Amino acid sequence: MRAIVMTTTGAPEVLAPRDLDDPAPAAGQVLVRASAVPVLYPETKVRAGAFPFPAPLPAVFGFQAAGTIVDLGAGVDPALLGARVVAATSGFGAYAELVAADQDSVTLIPDGLGTEAAAAIQMPGSVALALIATAALTPGETVLVEAGATGVGSCLVQLCAARGVRVIATAGGPEKATLARAHGAAAVLDHATPDWADRLGEVLSGGTVDVVFDSIGGESLTPLLDHVTPLRGRILSYGWLAGAPAQLGAADLILRGLTLTGCAGAAWLGTVAAQRSAALDAAARGLLSVDIDATLPLDAAAEAHRKLEDRAAFGAVLLRP
Ligand SMILES: NC(=O)c1ccc[n+]([C@@H]2O[C@H](COP(=O)([O-])OP(=O)(O)OC[C@H]3O[C@@H](n4cnc5c(N)ncnc54)[C@H](OP(=O)(O)O)[C@@H]3O)[C@@H](O)[C@H]2O)c1
After folding, report:
1. Burial of 124 (0-12, 13-18, 19+ CB in 10 A)
2. What Pfam families does this protein map onto (predicted)?
């Protein structure tokens, strides 16, 4: 089979196309013939060496793949043969024509949802649903969705708007601002400009933000704190696009009566996994969608990673094995 092998950590070129023997499903595993593989932002960090790679290198890269189950290991429910699924791997093995994955890690794709759309929505949709559940929103609240034109960000914008919540988003540049507005943001601030937090005050005109969905991290939260509702404001920190988690001290929160919830790590990922079916169902019912920027051949994995790192993608990037 054709597969993308990560040879070492580093630049996108460490993702090399190779011809390998077909994998066989072990006991409890299914074998998926992949037709759409999502290229995920956290994968770029794993490839670069910022997050650990969970296996000795070289190894087939990739977290998720969508396609059809073509073979079963011992002990697997025979009804799964031929099913369309999105499979989550143990952190490697998904950028390939054939993907072996634990049967517990596959999510059935509902009728009415295309395989590409399912591949694109599963990760951002399930993360956004887990964040929304954690935020305990009430109608009439105001939320700030940082990076609202990203996969997770655009799902948050849609889900919040559908719950009667006023959504203020940030995005990098006018085209991504248009995307965030199309998904339901009432106002969008350009986070590529240095004074965007000051302009949040103008947009709020005396009001405050009840929930901040923080994906940028770094120093970006500090100037926002005085715009968050005292005693009731919640900050959910789930990403650090700026390169480091939110740089806040306990006193920053305590003196304003705010809470910060960390939404990352192994236990959090279990919460996200529990939302996978719900994300695909919401997409099948037309309640959630992700823009698809490009579908590239499997061999173009390095190009796909570069596109994400250059912030040049306007939606999901998929590989087609
Ligand atoms: N905790 C979790 O469970 C979890 C799960 C998945 C993802 N995440 C995190 O969520 C974040 C978004 O992931 P995604 O998959 O939705 O991303 P994505 O769709 O791949 O979007 C990436 C976008 O992030 C923006 N960006 C990049 N660097 C930035 C920076 N320094 N400041 C502000 N924005 C920047 C760019 O948009 P602009 O051009 O608009 O700036 C870029 O196009 C990432 O930090 C990711 O690691 C967390």
Report:
1. buried
2. ADH_N (PF08240), ADH_zinc_N (PF00107)
What is the number of domains present in the chain? 2
- Whether 276 is in a domain gets the answer no
pLDDT digit string, tens, across residues 233-272: 999 999 999 999 999 999 999 999 999 999 999 999 999 9
Residue 17 scores a pLDDT above 90:
yes
Q: Are residues 216 and 101 in the same domain?
A: no
Mean per-residue pLDDT over the chain, rounded: 96
Can you spell out the DSSP letters for 120-144? HHHHHHHHHHHHHHHHT--TT-EEE
pLDDT (0 to 100) of residue 31: 98
Residue 114, domain member (yes or no): no
First to last CA, the chain: 10
Q: Does residue 234 sit within a domain?
A: yes
Task: Tell me the pTM.
Answer: 0.97
The set of protein residues with a Cβ atom below 6 angstroms from ligand 1 is 40-42, 123-124, 127, 147, 149-153, 171-172, 176, 191, 215-216, 238-242, 263-264, 268, 272, 308, 311, 313
pLDDT per residue as tens digits for the range 86-135:
999 988 999 999 999 999 999 999 999 999 999 999 999 999 999 999 99
**What CATH number corresponds to the domain at position 67?**
3.90.180.10
CATH number at residue 220: 3.40.50.720
Tell me phi and psi for residue 230, to 5 degrees. Answer: -60, 140
- To test the ligand 1 pocket, which listed residue (150, 193, 196, 309) has its Cβ within 8 A of the most ligand atoms? 150
Range of the domain at 46: 2-108+291-319
In this structure, are 251 and 297 located in the same domain? no
How many angstroms separate the alpha carbon of residue 76 from the centre of ligand 1?
A: 36
